Amino acid sequence: MYQRIFVPVGADESSACVVEEASRLAAALHARICLAQVVDTSQFADDPLELAHELRLSEAEREHDDRRAALHRSLEARAQPLQAAGIETDTRLVEKFGGKICDAIVKAAADWKADLIVMGTHGRGGIRHFLMGSVAEGVLHHTRIPILLVHDTSDDD
Questions:
Q1: How far apart are CA 117 and CA 148, in angstroms?
Q2: Does pTM surpass 0.70?
Q3: CA distance 104 to 150
Q4: Is 49 domain-assigned?
Q5: 64-120, pLDDT tens digit by residue?
Q6: Which structural domain, as residue segments, surrounds residue 12?
Q7: Which residues contact 148 (CB under 8 A, 6 or more apart)?
Q8: Any idea what the CATH number is for the domain that residue 30 is in?
Q9: Beta-bridge partner residues of 92
Q10: Hey, which residues does 36 pair with through a beta bridge?
């Protein structure tokens, strides 16, 4: 059965129901979890041309390192309750520069040798889905790894 469960999470707490579902599954199966957060490093660059200047580059690198460290601390904090419950847990900050989030998730899950991806979906439809796209749908179409989708009810009206 599933022994390596890859769980992409967001920066906010909306992923709590996804982590909870993954932890129940991992506990039942004695599986390992990898909590992963994708961060687009291009967001750290205000203006790529401006970054070419040596001084500005070093400032941007320090700011990026500070943000990276904060994200690592956040992932580690999310992993602590899982580890306390006896679930082996890895954390991974997946950095990408441009491109699609779904592609970064698919690659990171494959690199970690996941045999299941557990991720959230907002269940948006219609124009909201068209405008915002669906990371879950992108992952579904680009991976051969089985996926368990957990409906995120945190922003339901």
A1: 6
A2: yes
A3: 19
A4: yes
A5: 788 889 999 999 999 999 999 999 999 999 999 888 999 999 999 999 999 999 998
A6: 4-151
A7: 21, 22, 25, 116, 117, 118, 119
A8: 3.40.50.620
A9: 36
A10: 8, 92
The reply to whether 157 falls in a domain is: no
* Residue 156 domain-assigned (yes or no): no
CA dihedral 128, 105, 153, 123 (to 10 degrees): 40
Phi, psi of 121 (to 5 degrees): -140, 140
Domain-located, residue 146: yes
Which residues lie across from 35 on neighbouring strands? 7, 91
Strands (E), 87-137: 89-96, 116-121
- Domain count for the chain: 1
Residues 6+ apart with CB under 8 A from 59: none
Each as own residue / partner, the long-range contacts of residues 11-18 (CB below 8 Å, 24 or more positions apart, any chain) are: 11/37, 11/71, 11/74, 13/154, 14/120, 14/152, 14/154, 14/155, 15/120, 15/152, 16/154, 17/120, 17/150, 17/152, 17/153, 17/154, 18/118, 18/119, 18/120, 18/150, 18/152
Q: For residue 71, give the H/E element and its range.
A: helix 54-84
Give CA–CA dist 103/94, Å, rounded. Answer: 11
